[in-house]
Design brief:
Layout lengths: L1 E3 L2 H13 L4 E6 L5 H11 L4 E6 L19 H11 L3 E3 L3 H4 L18 H4 L3 H16 L3 E5 L3 H13 L5 E5 L19 H6 L2 H14 L5 H14 L3 E9 L12 E10 L2 E10 L4
Parallel strand pairs: 1-4, 2-3, 2-5, 3-4, 5-6
Antiparallel strand pairs: 7-8, 8-9
Helix pairs in contact: 6-7, 9-10
Length: about 280
């Protein structure tokens, strides 16, 4: 596995790989890798034979009051994990490479980018979409893999690729969970021991709401309210629990069959997000 930090060096290696007939698959990350990221690499190997992963903590998607400076940087262990999983290249640019001048050209996301995570983290998806588009232009992959845990991000990236006619297949990889159901996330490392013991509450609340839907309940606002109250009784500060259509994250009606429940809540000082897809029988 090679570790490359310059755009020209990366493009030269990828040009060689394409001349050999390789299908390039890209897995962008911010590092601090865990088993969930390794599942993205496993998905990548099913969709191509030359795997590129990036490690870059993207300042553009962090608000001034967020954790950019304390976001864990674990580069050596990240590279060891990627090498063990079969990555061919790690692209690890610093900010002067990816943003040699202030990034004044930005991707404007649609209305859905201002909802849910976008409401609580203004500008987040604009920063995500901008860096992803820039990385796509640098790597020019045949396919790219994103996790379903960041469901709204996946939908926005997929929409960007479709509307800008980028020749990239977007592969969705299922969420990887701990034994107690907690979705694996780099921010789980912020959890205190006591908070970690309760961190699966969010998944349990989403699972209970999903069960109600599968048993025929369609009073969506009531289910959402009950879910928020349940988390509150367990000491969580909830930003949202919401039921949406899978296809576009719009509000559903009783006839919709493909739904997703999304939640974001804070336990202690750590904010967690999660979601569950639900396929319902026609009413």
């Amino acid at each position: 596995m090679e570790i490359l930090t310059r755009i020209d060096a990366l493009r030269a290696r990828l040009s060689d790989a394409r001349r050999m007939g390789c299908r390039v698959v890209f897995v962008p990350t911010m590092g601090n890798l865990h088993a969930g990221h390794m599942s993205l690499l496993a998905s990548a190997k099913q969709h191509g034979d030359y795997i590129v992963s990036s490690i870059f903590v993207n300042r553009l998607q962090f608000a001034p009051n967020e954790d950019f400076d304390r976001y864990p940087r674990t580069f050596e262990s990240d590279c060891s994990m990627l090498a063990a999983e079969g990555a061919h290249i790690v692209f690890a640019p610093d900010e002067t490479v990816l943003y040699p001048a202030p990034q004044v050209y930005m991707v404007q996301t649609p209305q859905v980018g201002d909802e849910l995570e976008g409401q609580f983290r203004p500008g987040f998806f604009r920063g995500v979409a901008t860096v992803v588009l820039k990385l796509f232009n640098i790597v020019q992959p045949d396919a790219a893999v994103f996790g379903k845990k960041d469901y709204q991000q996946l939908l926005i990236i997929r929409g960007m690729v479709n509307q800008l006619a980028l020749p990239i297949e977007i592969v969705a990889s299922d969420t990887v969970r701990a034994i107690d159901g907690l979705a694996l996330s780099s921010r789980n490392g912020y959890l205190s021991e006591g908070d970690r013991a309760r961190a699966s509450d969010l998944y349990k609340v989403l699972t209970e709401a999903a069960g109600l839907l599968r048993h025929g309940r369609r009073d969506f606002p009531v289910i959402e309210k009950q879910s928020v109250e349940m988390l509150g009784r367990s000491g969580w500060d909830t930003d949202y629990i919401t039921i949406r259509r899978q296809r576009d994250l719009s509000s559903p009606d009783a006839s919709d069959e493909s739904l997703v429940i999304l939640g974001a809540a804070k336990i202690g000082r750590t904010r967690l997000i999660d979601n569950l897809e639900i396929g319902l029988q026609p009413t």
